[in-house]
Amino acid sequence: MTEILVFCETNEEHLDSSAGELIAAGRKLSSEISLPVSAVIFNPNTQMIKEASSLGADKIYKVNDPKFEQKTDEIFTHGLFESCKQINPTVILAAKTSLGRNVAARTAYRLKSSVAQDCMDIRGDKNSGLISVTRPVYGGNAQAVFTFTKPSNQMVILRVKTFEPLEADNTRTAEEINLEISMPDSKLTVIDTVKQEFEGVRLEDASVIVGGGRGLGGPEAFVHLEELAKILNGAVGASRAVCDAGWLDHSYQIGLTGKTVTPDLYITVAISGASQHMAGCSASKNIIAINKDGEANIFKEASFGVVGDWEQILPAFTEAARELTQS
Amino acid sequence: MNIVVCVKQVMDPDTPISAFVIDEVEKKVVPAQGIPPVVNGYCENAVEAALQIKAQEGGEGTITILSLGTDFVMDVMKKPLSMGADKMILIQDEHVAELDAAGIVNVLSAAINKIPDVDLVLCGQQASDWDNAHIPMGIAENLNLPCITSALNIEHTGDKLLVQSALPDGYQTLEAPVQSLITVNNLFGEPRYPTLKGIMQASRKSPEIWSISDLGVSSSELEPFLILSELKIPVSEGNCEIIEGEDDADSGRLLALKLREEKII
Ligand SMILES: Cc1cc2nc3c(=O)[nH]c(=O)nc-3n(C[C@H](O)[C@H](O)[C@H](O)COP(=O)(O)OP(=O)(O)OC[C@H]3O[C@@H](n4cnc5c(N)ncnc54)[C@H](O)[C@@H]3O)c2cc1C
Ligand SMILES: Nc1ncnc2c1ncn2[C@@H]1O[C@H](COP(=O)(O)O)[C@@H](O)[C@H]1O
User: Fold this and answer.
1) I want to staple B82 with a disulfide (CB 3.0 to 4.6 A). Which of A252, A314, B131, B202 is the partner?
2) Distance between CA atoms of A110 and A185, rounded to whole angstroms?
3) C-alpha count within 13 angstroms, C-beta hemisphere, residue B203
4) Is residue B12 part of a domain?
């Protein structure tokens, strides 16, 4: 039996917020299968190492190579695969981010193992070292439990924002180990990267989100959602139907194949609440539904709602919200 | 260019929740009465991508549709052919239900190896039944192909592919060898509707039917890494408080007051 390895992603100077969640999941698992939690960080700085140890890592593997400055699946798959070959972990945890989910899946298959995707819970069996995971399937209409059959390189991809990072404890220290790996030439060349400029609050960071659905009837309606979002200092999001129709860019999409958000308040306007949409927002603290169909699924997920026409409801709601929040 | 598109038959994801039934003992989703299965949505996007590449080449090359499953509904599975694909291979095998993702990966990889002169492999990004989103990565690893996900655009120039791949807030343009595996989703654009001519042509084509035993996959390659131990419908709490005023506008106003009272806004 060896260890629980966490693939920590980084953002410029810090660990990505998903890293703390994974380490917390690792600690939970550690209490069940009594294995240490180690973190592998590519091109770490001292800040990232401090963060990983204070959030609960026992051991930190540092892998340095200028190639990791380019965040491609290919380069990180090689990095994670070579690290796993040296470490031979019992379990590997990765986050369902755009990099993490691809890198984890490819690494698992390269290790001749397999992977459980989009997991919301994880448990370990002390005697066998085998991991069980709970994951939504069929777009969230069903929930499945899967159990691994072989106790090594069990790759688990966790949905972001399902585990709370532990409280940072700055007195904790972790053992640091340098891993040497050689990087081959890439078969893919990055020609350019185009980043969309973003105004206002980022959807992933927003504590209030106003989301619009197909029932809004067209792109013009989003002016009203923008207005409400501004008053509540929030961001606008959308269902896939809206993005597919071209009313908003795909970066606004919330859901299974869009962004995962966890605002304190998610106001949905003319969204039916399909399971694939809820997959990206069901951990919101308060969901509010404005929908003309009282049978719509969104009312099963919402804590407060109004059944009716958004064109009448939203302006009155916005006006009242303006008065209440500015008084 | 010869393209293989991996396509999966799935339960219609728009099946109403009331018709979504699980047999918890068998750990299976019960097919909804009267609602036929569909070609997985993102697989249709992948077929569209293949057709656009073939058109770029002036119609040169062959598009082969490859699918592994049981209980294929031929009218459903012929859709990619009626959209314009050239050939279809169905690996029809009653043992499919016993396979996990790794087993499916090994069978599909062996099948692609058996198809002559394959250049590019296209897959949907995710199948809407088990939402694995990793069968394509497994195939890429098995066949040692570079893998690009979520393509927005694919262009064949010289002996290379230029692929735009979506990022959460933008995209990246990558240069890849023609021998690659690329996944496609709704961001690629709407799949075309079959034309009447396409439907007629498809009706004259019959798929090649293979079975797993034709592919020389060893039994150890079919052993599962993951076993389904439980399948159920999640319970939702469903205690929404409905706010009702004199009319819709009044309800909107009362909703704001309620949220203020609850210290939510
Ligand atoms: C593999 C897969 C992945 C998917 N991923 C995502 C995803 O990431 N995100 C996502 O959102 N979806 C996703 N979907 C699609 C999802 O299944 C739904 O189709 C989609 O969420 C529906 O969007 P909607 O609620 O805006 O539209 P609809 O379902 O059409 O709902 C519109 C709602 O508006 C209401 N309405 C209409 N007019 C009014 C009015 N005047 N006033 C008030 N209410 C009104 C209607 O009652 C209805 O409930 C995915 C599907 C698949 C198969
Ligand atoms: N049984 C199958 N037959 C053919 N292609 C498949 C099969 N399963 C998965 N795929 C391909 O892999 C993609 C992703 O599926 P999955 O990894 O199962 O979510 C699909 O869109 C298909 O392109």
Assistant:
1) B202
2) 17
3) 7
4) yes
Give the ligand 2 atom nearest the CA of B5. Answer: 23
CA distance B30 to chain A (A): 12
Compute, in angstroms, the gap from residue B127 CA to the centroid of ligand 2. 6
CATH number at residue B104: 3.40.50.620
CB A301 within 8 A of CB A211: no
Identify the CA nearest to A301 among candidates A287, A315, A322.
A287
Task: Find, in chain A, the residue whose alpha carbon is nearest to that of B230.
Answer: A145
**Residue A306 and residue B245: Cα distance in Å, rounded?**
9
Give the distance (Å) from ligand 2 centre to CA of residue B43.
8
Tell me the CA–centroid distance for residue B252 and ligand 1, in Å. 22
Cβ neighbour number for residue B25 with a 10 Å cutoff: 7
Interface test mutation site (partner A, options B21, B226, B228, max chain A beta carbons within 10 A): B226
* Whole-number Å distance between alpha carbons of A49 and A4: 17
Do B200 and B248 have their domain in common?
no
Asked if A182 is an interface residue toward chain B (Cβ–Cβ < 8 A), one would say no
B166 and B212, same domain (yes or no): yes
For residue B261, give its domain range. Answer: 235-265
Say whether both B240 and B198 belong to one domain: no
In a domain, B23, yes or no: yes
Q: What is the pTM of this model?
A: 0.94
Q: What share of chain A is helix, strand, coil (3-state, %, to 5)?
A: 35, 30, 40
* Contact assignment for A105 to B175 by CB distance below 8 Å: no
Both B256 and B168 in one domain: the answer is no
Specify the number of domains making up chain B: 2
Distance (Å) from the alpha carbon of A180 to chain B's nearest alpha carbon: 23
Query: Are residues B254 and B196 part of one domain?
Result: no
Which of A193, A290, A313 lies closest to B170 in CB terms? A193
Residues of B in contact with A148 (CB under 8 A): 225-226
Ligand 1 pocket by Cβ (under 6 Å): A 139, 213-215, 239-242, 253-258, 270-272, 274, 276-277, 280, 291-293, 296, 309-311; B 13, 41, 126, 128
pLDDT tens-place values along chain A, 327 residues long: 599 999 999 998 999 999 999 999 999 999 999 999 999 999 999 999 999 999 999 999 999 999 999 989 999 999 999 999 999 999 999 999 999 999 999 999 999 999 999 999 999 999 999 999 999 999 999 999 999 999 999 999 999 999 999 999 999 999 999 999 999 998 999 999 999 877 778 898 899 999 999 999 999 999 999 999 999 999 999 999 999 999 999 999 999 989 999 999 999 999 999 999 999 999 899 999 999 999 999 999 999 999 999 999 999 999 999 999 987
B229 located within any domain: no
Residues B131 and B97 in one domain: yes
